[in-house]
Structures are given as structure tokens and as C-alpha cells.
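Q: Here's a chain of 223 amino acids. Please give me its 3D structure as C-alpha cells.
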Amino acid sequence: MNVLTYAIGDIHGCADALLRLLEQINLHRAGRPARIVCLGDYVDRGPESARVIEILRHLQRDAPSALTCLMGNHEQMMLEAYRDAHGASTWLSNGGRQTLRAFGITAPEAFPRDVLTWLSSLPTVHEDALRYFVHAGFRPGRTGVDPDMWNHLWIREPFLGMAFDFGKHVVHGHTPQLEGVPDRQPYRTNLDTGCVYGRSLTAGVFDETRGPPIDFLQVDRDR
């Protein structure tokens, strides 16, 4: 049976949009076998980072094999802010203050330990037979998974500007498309459609016949 995979772009604390997109996914799959891959950046900038994490952790507990959550650069910054108070200023200036408010705390060291443990366990890459899923991308120049984890979380150029075949289609987020439309390229697809900036939250739909998406599902941040 042709298993569907739904990859969700950057959520950034937009919990209501996430719930509406999950409803769309459930309707679209219509009982067919399906997996969900979330591409990272669940926290910061938006108002409900704590609720987004709660939703994703609940789904994973109910069906651990059906949901893969990847780490994004904002999860990395949040963890570093907890581990090193001197590094917290970078995180706070990139949306961390909203995350503290969402958790009802005033400093990174007060984050719940179970949340930090979950974030620390997130992988930076997921792959299937036809695709690599990653938050930011890979450095062009070699096929397969980039061995440098920094690139998984942070890279923009030369990844975005160079058409390079990594051997599988790369599905990523990280760089917001402020028109609210996914960026479809021959060897990669960017699913960050700027939800936290008032645009859309997007899920790319993938099947077992080809690497690139066969469809997209979208919800507006504010309906």
C-alpha cells in the first residue's frame, strides 16, 4: 500500500494553526497509512510554544512510529540558553521572550526538565527511500546526509542558491517564504511558509512514487 508522508514546516508557537492543519491531514489521509514529519522550529516568536510542544509530545506518545519531530535552530538556541546563561541573549532576541511567557516562567533555567529532555532527544535528519527531511539543509558538494550538524540547523547559502542533487529530494524549512507559498525546486522543497509572520502553515504531501511533493495542505495563521 502507498504510504503517505506529511511534512510540516516551521510552526513557531502557532498552536491553533497546527491543530487545524492536523485536522486537514486526517481528512486528507482518509484512513490510509500515513506518517508525519515535523521539520523543527516549534518554539519562539509565536504565542504558544508550550502548547505546540504539548500537542506534538501527546501525538508521539499515542503513535510513536507515526510522528517524527526534528530539531530546528530555535530548539538548539533554547537548549543553549538553558545550559549557558551567557548565551541566552541571542535566544531572547530571536523570539525566546515569547517562549518564556508561554511557559509562564522568567528565565531559561526554569524550563520543565521533561521538555528539555524531549528537545535534546530530537534528531536533526530523517530519511526515507526517496527523501531527506531536515530543518535547514545540507552543504552542496557531496551526495547523502551532510555530516555537519550545524548545516542541518542553520545553513542557507550555498544550499538555497545552488541546484545540487544530494541523491534524494531534500525537504526543509528554516527560510520563511513570506508570500505563503512553498518553494519548489528540482532537488529540494522549502515548506516554511511564514506562519508566524501572518502567512500559512504548510504540510507537503509525499508518497512512495517520487521524491518531490504530490500536493500541499495549508491553513492560514488567522484562519
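Q: Can you summarize the key feature?
A: DSSP finds six helices and ten strands in the chain.
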